[in-house]
Amino acid sequence: MYQCSPSRTISFFDEVNGKSMENLGGDLGRVTLANQGKWISLFLCSSGGKVNPAFAIYELVRHILRPKLQTVALGELGSIAPLLYLMGDHRVITPETTLWFHHIYRNVVEKVQINTLAAGRMRKELLLDERKYFRIIEERTCGKTTKKEARCLLHNERTLNAKDAVKLGFAHEIVSVKNPP
Fold first, then answer.
1. Contact at 8 Å (CB) between 25 and 16?
2. pTM for this prediction
3. What pLDDT digit, counting tens, does each position of 79-115 carry?
4. Contacts (Cβ under 8 Å, ≥6 apart) of 167
């Protein structure tokens, strides 16, 4: 684990939604601009949330800001939250942390009528989101988790412990503090 400096550390312990991703993007942008070329640490704990804002922040970080980013997983990262973890160039996980995966879905508000055209379009959009997530997982794990294996993680609603996260390339290291003798 790279040394964490208070001025280069951000924490995200929230639900993934438009507002929380807007705030995270602003925080990451400010810290990145103030610390060009230095490691920034992002501590994460989230049960997940909305897919589109998660993809947006991922793209902002990986393609526009491009910080030297260390992500640290704490507690649980569920649903779409592992995508945020994969933003890091160096990914650290604590021994008891888990990563939880499930199908990508969209909420439909009550009393909305959906015809076959809308249902077909929604299915295509969901499949596109899944394929995007599978590509990102394969790329960021350096192929240790293939697109096919990523599909199995989501479709089988798998939970990875810290050791499995390292084995499958999601994490680079498990960190813990050793108690003095």
1. no
2. 0.91
3. 999 999 999 999 999 999 999 999 988 777 767 788 8
4. 144
